[in-house]
Amino acid sequence: MSHHGIKKRKLDRSTEDYMYFDSYSDVTIHEEMIADTVRTNAYRTGIFKNSKSIEGKVVLDVGAGTGVLSLFCAQAGARKVYAVEASSIADQAVKIVKLNQMEDRIDVIKGTLETIDLPEQVDVIVSEWMGYALLHESMLNSVLFARDKWLKPGGLILPYKADLYIAPLNDMVVEGRLNFWSTVKAQYGVDMSCMTDFARKCIMNKDITVNPVTVEDVLSHPCKFAELDLRTVTLEQLNDVRGVYKCACFGSSSIHALCVWFSVTFPAEEKALVLSTSPFKPETHWKQAVLYLDEPVDVMQDTLVEGEISLYPSEKNSRHICIRLDYSIGDHKKRSKTFSIPDQYLEV
């Protein structure tokens, strides 16, 4: 069998799961998540703001990791927390729970959500399930499974809603890299300007690039293209999360890419609490997902960038996300491009 054939082969579910859970058995990813103060504080605040609904109640923490959210729930007065974690980090969660003297209230259950059994229905589900571009790693499937199997009718889901946004982008770094080949002759007396096309194909490729985006590079107001209500969304709907977008550019520039990010919302009595991964907000470990066009397009004030975007699971591995982007910019004809997460991100 050719290597090409092997690469295309769809992974069976148990292999997918092994690779996914194995990536969580190292300290690095947990360090990154706990050190992400925007993320961890948002969950802490979101949980404490809902303490009236948590006090004396039963909570299920889906994909508990080190158990930090379970501990927040216990601190907020939960009677019992079931912390379900499939990777070996569950062993560390047991130690952390013990260290915080919460072992009477938090049960760490090692196993996948789909295979474990709970002794009772729960009042609240808490989970930090979001991946790059929201749906990469698709732990949301497990949250919905938990909702349908274990959550009491009218129970609480934290966070309860996710929104997806898109905006056009000028990438100065890419611009510099593309222009570089035109500068070689002045530097060394050898013309390499024909390298520009090759560079563009290499750089503006089909990878979903996970990078922090600079606010100055964003060329329009964000456009919300999809909203997921975790109380009602179905697994079937997650197989194709799509929406349309229309952005008007701020001024004269070049568009190199479109950029996607998300926010999640916790209910609260006064003002709902939003954890946002927007480039306009403090950076999180999710950064933003950058989708490069095939070539830069010049725009002016109010040039319209519009089209449709669709997020769906990869055929090769259902935990991995693909994004199909249809776009038209100003008078240019509509183009389409499909992106996936490159291998360097598949380990984390």
Q: How many helices in DSSP terms?
A: 11
**Would you report the number of β strands?**
15
What is the mean predicted local confidence, pLDDT? 92
Helix content: 25-40%
State the low-pLDDT regions, or none.
1-9
Please outline the major beta sheet: 6 strands, antiparallel
Order of helices and strands: HHHHHEHEHEEHEEHHEEHEEEEEEE
Our estimate of the beta-strand percent is 25-35%
- Find the structural class using helix and strand composition: alpha/beta
Radius of gyration using CA atoms only: 22 Å
| Basic shape | elongated
Separation, N- and C-terminal Cα atoms: 29 Å
Question: What is the topological layout?
Answer:
Elements: H1 3-8, H2 13-22, H3 27-35, H4 37-49, H5 51-54, E1 58-62, H6 68-75, E2 80-85, H7 89-99, E3 106-110, E4 122-127, H8 140-150, E5 151-158, E6 161-169, H9 172-188, H10 195-203, E7 208-211, E8 223-229, H11 235-238, E9 241-248, E10 253-266, E11 273-276, E12 288-299, E13 304-313, E14 321-329, E15 335-340
Features:
6-stranded antiparallel beta sheet, disordered N terminus, 348 residues
Task: Summarize this entry quickly.
The chain is of the alpha/beta class and 348 residues long.
Molecular structure report:
This protein has helices spanning 3-8, 13-22, 27-35, 37-49, 51-54, 68-75, 89-99, 140-150, 172-188, 195-203, 235-238; strands at residues 58-62, 80-85, 106-110, 122-127, 151-158, 161-169, 208-211, 223-229, 241-248, 253-266, 273-276, 288-299, 304-313, 321-329, 335-340. It has 348 residues and is an alpha/beta fold. The strands form three sheets. Strands 6, 7, 8, 10, 11 and 12 form a six-stranded antiparallel sheet that branches. A five-stranded parallel sheet has the order 3-2-1-4-5, with helices on both faces. A four-stranded antiparallel sheet has the order 9-13-14-15, with no helix packed on it. A hairpin with a 5-residue loop joins strand 14 and strand 15 (335-340). The longest helix is centred in the middle third of the chain and has 17 residues, at 172-188. The two termini are 29 Å apart.
